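Technical note accompanying the year-one report. For the benefit of new consortium partners, we illustrate the data format agreed upon in the data management plan: each record pairs a sequence with a structure-token string. No post-processing was applied to the example shown here.
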Amino acid sequence: MKLTNAISVAVFGFAGGVFRGLLSTAFDANGVLVANLLGCFLLAFLTYYVIERDLLAGWLNAGLGTGLIGAFTTFSSFSMTTIKLTQHSPLLGGAYLLVSMVGGLAMAGLGMTLARRLGRVVDRHA
């Protein structure tokens, strides 16, 4: 990995972790859910609009995708929240798991679809 990529991932990763922490503090388990769903959308949009169209430098793509969004969304927070909710109520834990999985796929699909449509509109006007 290039040094510029590593620095970019570290700096943006710090910011992503802080943003997730703020959401978790403000909204408890719902903050993790919001972060993960929003992250699914943002990573798909970044991939299919920004990276696919080569709009930013590689170090910035690495920082935004791996650093910011990677730290903003986290499987460990999702897993711990699911376990905590399941211990409180198996139904609530199962619902959280289902909403996270289906919602994450839906948000990624929405991000990809929006990015591709926006790309076609921009291309027509260029």
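Partners are asked to follow this layout when depositing records. Residues 90-125 form the longest helix (36 residues).
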